[in-house]
Amino acid sequence: MRIAQITDAHIFEDPATRFEGCDTRASFEAVLAEIQSLGNIDLIVATGDMSMDGGFVSYRFLNSLFSDCDIPILAVPGNHDEPSAASQSSNFYFLTSAENRDFGRWRFHFLNTKKDGDERGEIDSKDLSELARNIVSAGRRPQIIFMHHPPLNVGSAWLDDMKLENASDFWHIVSQNPNVKGVFCGHVHQDNEISRNGVRVITTPSTCVQFKRHSRIYQIERLLQPGFRVIEAQDDGSFSHLLVRLEPSDEFSVPLL
Ligand SMILES: [Fe+2]
Q1: Which residues span the domain enclosing 73?
Q2: The domain that contains 173 carries what CATH number?
Q3: How many Å lie between the centroid of ligand 1 and the Cα of residue 185?
Q4: DSSP β-ladder status, 143-146 and 180-185
Q5: How far apart are CA 8 and CA 1, in angstroms?
Q6: 149 CA distance to ligand 1 centroid (A)?
Q7: Residue 256 lies in a domain
Q8: 141 domain residue, yes or no
Q9: Separation of 154 CA from ligand 1 center, angstroms?
């Protein structure tokens, strides 16, 4: 089973608007084209902030791209998203409560960490209870969790201030089953892998603008290109992953100063 994780597309309502000079629609189209060209992806998972402003037109753009894509997509919202605006579209919409899907031996969990009016993340109590049920009922199935906000610090103070707020509740639930193998997140626009009690937490770069790692304050990383992650979930319950970045392009690369 191969999954492509895409995250933090930040599509604007107005196609002329740029994010730090990046045409986020162009970079997103290039990422999606690259994923389709791989030819062996079974599922795309979008981990939030797919829109910058939550506007209907930004989701209509995503919907039109996914209408032409024959790979199934599942998405969870980020702090910038407006799930109700996306729900009017048929091919691109968000799972807004804790859900899971089983693929072969694997169970994948999808969590909504969006907290209205806040950049920080939160899993509400109803979803925490549902997650606990789904994690325990998975039994011996290997499991991966997808969510927007990382449930731990990544070493960038300004981003760590807006991680998942109720991370201790999350980790308490995850500890109920030793078969939770990994957590894949977005939000931080940078590549990290941090292990916590044997669970690998992986953050994936944005499909548009990158943020500098280990920075105390907001700083963009001009040298790194848009990307996505390929996750290979093996039948033996292990997984591996690979970060893919686009080649620099005048169409979407953030200009060097
Ligand atoms: Fe975010």
Answers
A1: 2-245
A2: 3.60.21.10
A3: 10
A4: parallel
A5: 23
A6: 7
A7: no
A8: yes
A9: 14
* Token reading at 64: 């039109």
Residue 73 pLDDT: 96
Q: How many domains does the chain have?
A: 1
Is the Cβ–Cβ distance between 10 and 24 less than 8 Å? yes
Q: Which residues surround ligand 1, an ion (CB under 5 A)?
A: 49, 78-79, 187
Distance 77 CA to ligand 1 centre (A): 9
Residue 48 Cα to ligand 1 midpoint, Å, equals: 7
Type of residue at 204: T
pLDDT at 11: 97
Per-residue pLDDT of the chain (257 residues), as tens digits, is: 999 999 999 999 999 999 999 999 999 999 999 999 999 999 999 999 999 999 999 999 999 999 999 999 999 999 999 999 998 777 899 999 999 999 999 999 999 999 999 999 999 999 999 999 999 999 999 999 999 999 999 999 999 999 999 999 999 999 999 999 999 999 999 999 999 999 999 999 999 999 999 999 999 999 999 999 999 999 999 999 999 999 999 999 999 87
Name the percent of the chain in helix, strand, coil, to the closest 5. 20, 25, 55
- 186 CA from centroid of ligand 1 (Å): 7
C-alpha 51 to ligand 1 mean position (Å): 10
Q: How far, in Å, is the centroid of ligand 1 from the Cα of 235?
A: 32
Structure tokens belonging to residue 139: 């039994």
Closest of 71, 73, 68 to residue 9, by C-alpha:
73
Q: How far is the CA of 139 from the centre of ligand 1 (A)?
A: 31
Give domain status of residue 146, yes or no. Answer: yes
Residue 236 Cα to ligand 1 midpoint, Å, equals 33
Q: What local confidence, expressed as pLDDT, does residue 243 receive?
A: 98
Residue 81 belongs to a domain: yes
